[in-house]
Records
---
Amino acid sequence: MKKEVILAISIGFALGLIITFGIWTANQSLKNLPQPSPKASVSPSPTPSNEVTNNQLTISTPDDEALVSTDTITLSGTATPKATLLIISENGEQTATADTTGNFSLDVDLITGFNTITVYSYSAYGQEASKSLTITYSTAKI
């Protein structure tokens, strides 16, 4: 029993010395780093750009909460010109690209019942915009 206690104390003492030496070495290395001068830390101010950086997204058809009797709808609207569009629906995902004027149009398949369609628009400048709409597809006669 006495041997185990002495062995544990010896190992703990050795590990403590190793950790202490590592901390001391790290502190010595950090003291030797060159300090930046206050004038060197001035960052350049951004230059204004004439480019459009605000990502716009509008869905013109179909209307939100529309009730349709066909299993495919045409989703159309406007976004930032040349924006990449990601359309997520109950039937999967689609990608599209807005034309040079920002218009887009594509067909989306629906499932019976409620369909949540989310459109994400990503501009060339890294901006994101999104819109969601709910479309109900039913063949029931009203």
---
Amino acid sequence: MKPIAEALEKLSPEVRAELARPHERRDPRHAEIVVGNDPRWYVIEVFVSAQSEVAEVLAGHRFGVYMPEVEEEIIRRGRKVERRVPMFSGYLFVFMWYSDQHWQCISGIPGVVEIVGSLTDAEIDIVRAMENMKRPVVIDIEPEPEPEPVIPTAKSKKKRRWKDRKKAKAKAKAAKPKVITEADLRAQIITTRAWSAFDDVLQLDSEGRNQTLMRALGLS
């Protein structure tokens, strides 16, 4: 034991502190990569009253959890009030590598009913896009300071006249219609995306959104 103690004394305080930390055993309830299995977004049916709590527990077990929200207008005490509610009432999107161990962990969480199906990344991206349409990003930009007045000189007047003639030539050139060649058309990048039922999900009520989700899963 004496050689070990002497060796420990030669280590830095940081290394000794790291070695003194208690060993943390792997929690079998945590999400893990399953070799040979592709991860997907699985749709988990939950009790509506426990939807937020289930999402929090799943995140605590290191699962990828997505609960999209929408704004809903209700009447409370005679006044219109806006609140955020789940886009799909009673359903959560969980990103995971499917395995019996993962499903046993998820099914054991109070409030979980079952896995009803899975969606592709492209379908989840459309849901994200629909949700973000109602969440504009506001960026505050400080106004630029006003430039100090410049006293014109003979040299600056000559330079300004030269710039004005240059702008006039560019304007006249831009007014001429450009001939579009085949090379121009080939240089253009055109992207298309297939229509999805989720594109119109914001125009539907809660029941309509859930029906859209079931159609996407092939359950109706």
